[in-house]
Write a structure and sequence with these properties.
With about 150 residues, the chain is mostly helical. About 55% of the residues lie in helices and about 0% in strands. It contains 7 helices and no strands. The longest helix has 15 residues. About 25% of the residues are buried.
Length: about 150
């Protein structure tokens, strides 16, 4: 029996956090939400195959356009994960996946442009918060504040 997944409406709620793991990969679940919402033309300001998504694309070596075609068939997360594991050019061990995901879970901004962009987001959404130091923290908080939460 084939799974048929409802496409999320990101005008109403944010995609899953980058931290949510699918197959022990960070980024993937959110990328799937953004891809499905893009197909439904309900992606709001969320961009499929964003710079952050590209970290996963490069790590595994898969084609994001081909992934979008797979998502269009209505496959569920488990089916998509199996497709990625089968088609990815870079076969990764459990240890590599764990280390890569752990690194991204706590990855701070780097480079002048990255630090400036991070700082601009931080100042905009939570200028008094001193506990925000990683990309996933600032992006999760941005999602929360964008949908009415208070920083």
């Amino acid at each position: 029996m084939k799974t048929q997944v409802a496409f999320p409406d990101l005008t109403q709620r944010p995609p899953r956090s980058f931290r949510v793991r699918l197959g022990n990969y960070v980024i993937l679940a959110r990328m799937l939400d953004k891809g499905r919402a893009t197909l439904a033309k309900k992606n709001s300001e969320y961009n499929y195959n964003s710079g952050t998504d590209q970290h996963l694309v490069r790590f595994l070596g898969f084609d994001p356009k081909a992934l979008l075609k797979e998502l269009a068939t209505g496959k569920g997360d488990g089916e998509i994960l199996a497709w990625i594991q089968k088609t990815a050019k870079n076969k990764r061990t459990d240890a590599e996946i764990f280390a890569w995901s752990a690194y991204h879970d706590h990855r701070p901004p780097s480079g002048v442009e990255g630090r400036e962009y991070f700082h601009s987001l931080h100042v905009k959404i939570a200028p008094k918060r001193e506990d925000i130091s990683s990309w996933f923290e600032v992006l999760d908080l941005d999602d929360y504040v964008s949908y009415g939460g208070k920083a």
